[in-house]
Design a protein that fits this description.
Layout (H helix, E strand, L loop, with lengths): L11 H46 L3 H33 L4 H4 L4 H33 L1 H7 L2 H24 L5 E2 L6 E2 L8 H38 L4 H33 L1
Antiparallel strand pairs: 1-2
Helix pairs in contact: 1-2, 2-4, 2-6, 4-5, 4-6, 4-7, 4-8, 7-8
Length: 271
């Protein structure tokens, strides 16, 4: 009694169907990347135009500081969509053949740096905005006398430089950013981590991101409670309070979007 060990031939129709499916998935991925990048750029461009016009219109100190911080956040997000989206589209268009178009790992390093910076910097700016509003509501005299536009610009510069420093840490430590499993983006090494330095970069990114979200939540909670107390105690300065409520609502929206977009990734990376 003989046993037939020969492999079953694959039909041409099955091979054609498999190739067609892969091609469709590739086209959908490219289309999604282009759509996501375009929507992000257009929405941020509109937000930048509105914020710049509002910044020129409102000369109140408490309003201009908030608008300056908000403009910085939107501009950072704009360039994040533009640069990261453009690289992602290029990677898809090149069939994700990193060995062919990035032999020296330069593009992957640039991609990784941009991913870390555009991830952390908006979170930092969101927390700085929350702190600024919290001080403005709970300590208005201190805010009006001690916090000037120069101080706000110094905080912006400090936040941006710190985010750049964190993004450059692997390069400064002579480590490369790694191509991730999907071969569509680069980040810190996330698989088969045995070295403490690779683990440190991941933990630092997650810790800083979660810390920024926690500060935003804490400061926004204090600001909201303070405004509600003032609302029920006094009916004076109604216009000023309405501006504060408007800004707090905007901060809550920013915080909620940041939590939804980043919390799962930060928690998973931290774990």
């Amino acid at each position: 009694m003989s046993t037939n060990n020969s492999k079953q031939p694959v039909s041409p129709a099955a091979g054609l169907l498999s190739n067609t499916t892969c091609q469709m998935e590739e086209e959908l991925s490219i289309s999604f990347s282009i759509t996501f990048m375009t929507v992000g750029i257009l929405s941020n461009s509109l937000a930048i135009a509105i914020l710049m016009k509002a910044y020129q219109r409102f000369r109140q100190k408490y309003k201009s500081s908030f608008l300056l911080l908000a403009s910085a956040l939107v501009i950072t997000d704009f360039f994040g969509h533009l640069i990261n989206g453009a690289i992602a589209v290029f990677v898809y268009a090149s069939d994700k053949d990193w060995i062919h178009f990035d032999k020296s790992n330069v593009l992957c390093s640039i991609f990784g740096i941009c991913m870390v910076f555009s991830g952390l910097c908006p979170l930092f700016l969101g927390s700085v905005m929350a702190i600024e509003r919290c001080i403005g509501v709970t300590q208005p005299i201190f805010h009006s006398t001690k916090i000037t536009s120069k101080h706000v610009k110094m905080m912006l510069s400090g936040v941006c430089f710190f985010a750049v420093f964190v993004a450059l840490l692997p390069i400064l430590g002579h480590r490369d950013y790694k191509i991730q499993a999907s071969k569509t983006w680069c980040f810190y090494k996330t698989d088969h981590i045995k070295d403490w330095e690779d683990r440190f970069y991941l933990l630092l990114f997650s810790f800083l991101g979660l810390l920024a979200l926690g500060i935003s939540f804490f400061c926004n909670a204090i600001t909201g409670i303070s405004l509600l107390r003032v609302k029920f105690k006094s009916q004076q300065h109604r216009q000023g309070r309405s501006h504060h409520f408007e800004m707090v609502i905007q901060l809550l929206v920013i915080m909620c979007v940041s939590c939804v977009c980043w919390s799962p990734f930060l928690v998973r990376t931290y774990g």
